[in-house]
């Protein structure tokens, strides 16, 4: 299974990625994780990315695609992979298309998890973190114990969440039609329990 998983912040993408990697026995590949690993390992691409990030600059697509290529050549990715949240732009999608063609592999599906904006806001802004344990709770869906020392992280505050959702919408506005034209886009309703969303997703990609 070679799959790209797309979804806005708080869409449940991380949860579904974990389920799918276990079901299909393929690695989840996240560009954020790869950047951190490359920086830690001190690879040439990692050193380049580290210098850029420390200078407050964005890591260019060429470096990110280079990291993706290195990762896809590893033995555990030979039978498939789940790309988590990459590509984010049409330019990245086209670079990825070219890379996969060069490697002689194709994509099975691109799955977009659709969740209404008001629900994304509710999911994100009502999250709280226990400062002592790092455990994440949700004031509505998984309330914390009465003795928790709660913190409302900057990432989960309303203004920040709005900006992140706006950025996601702007990035994917052109990306989804790109994959729709290729005939590999599947859209899944992300409202409901994680199990319900998984069932819908599997019916789209295996049924």
Low-confidence spans: none
Largest sheet: 5 strands, parallel
Number of helices: 8
Average of pLDDT: 91
Shape: globular
Strand order of the largest sheet: 2-3-1-4-8
Give the H and E element order. Answer: EHEHHHEHEHEEEHEH
Task: Give Rg in angstroms.
Answer: 18 Å
- Helix coverage percent of residues? 40-55%
Instruction: List how many beta strands DSSP finds.
Output: 8
| End-to-end separation | 13 Å
Percent range for β-strand residues: 15-25%
Q: Structural class, from helix and strand content?
A: alpha/beta
What's the short version?
The protein contains 8 helices and 8 strands, in the order βαβαααβαβαβββαβα. With 207 residues, the chain is an alpha/beta fold.
Description:
With about 210 residues, the chain is an alpha/beta fold. About 50% of the residues lie in helices and about 15% in strands. The chain has eight helices and eight strands. The radius of gyration is 18 Å and the shape is globular.
